[in-house]
Design brief:
This protein has ten helices and no strands. The protein is an all-alpha fold.
């Protein structure tokens, strides 16, 4: 995946997660500043953790104006089209699942570009996917989805693994990324609608 495609994937995930942050913040009746702040940390929190872990400093979220702009655009988009978005079934889940799949592959790919080992790339992909959502839920006094919901972190792990393994094949990276993101989204989607869960221990 070349640099431009990596940025496009990252911005797509940033937008999707930002929308989920806006919707969650609106449920808590935050003001405009609070909504925008939650949108930013939801969209960029995982990427900031990833970049700091890789030594990619300053993190892209602070160094690239696009990562500052996309959450603001997402806030405006969500507020303008909120009536249509709220008609969707489980809108927070939908945008969160899209962001989860996209960030799993973009996070893993960036880690590989920065010379990370395959196992670290997989972990970085998962961290990119779940980090922002965890911050969002903690700040809004919600139990993080990754700790309580159907299959969440595992879906990100599978997507990141597909991206990492696929990078060692002759298949074009954008195809591998599309497959990885789609599989992660599908796992999350099916687990939500069919109630799939990992074993629990009492």
């Amino acid at each position: 995946m070349n640099h431009i495609l990596l940025v496009i994937f990252d911005l797509l995930g940033t937008f999707a997660f930002a929308v989920s942050g806006v919707l969650a913040a609106k449920q808590k009746r935050l003001d405009l500043f609070g909504i925008t702040f939650i949108a930013f940390v939801t969209a960029c929190g995982g990427g900031i953790f990833r970049d700091l872990s890789l030594g990619a400093t300053p993190p892209a979220a602070f160094d690239d104006w696009r990562y500052m702009t996309v959450p603001v655009v997402a806030v405006a988009f969500t507020l303008v089209f909120r009536r249509y978005i709220e008609r969707l079934s489980f809108p927070i889940f939908l945008f969160d699942a899209i962001g989860l799949g996209v960030f799993a592959v973009s996070g893993a790919h960036k880690a590989l570009v920065w010379g990370a080992s395959p196992q670290m790339a997989v972990f970085m992909g998962m961290l990119t996917s779940i980090g922002g959502g965890m911050i969002r839920d903690i700040m809004l006094n919600r139990t993080p989805d990754v700790l309580s919901k159907e299959i969440y972190g595992l879906a990100a792990l599978v997507g990141a693994t597909i991206m990492t393994l696929g990078s060692y094949t002759n298949m074009h990276n954008i195809i591998v990324a599309a497959i990885g993101a789609s599989v992660a989204f599908l796992i999350r989607f099916l687990s939500f609608h069919r109630g799939w869960e990992l074993p629990r221990f009492s």
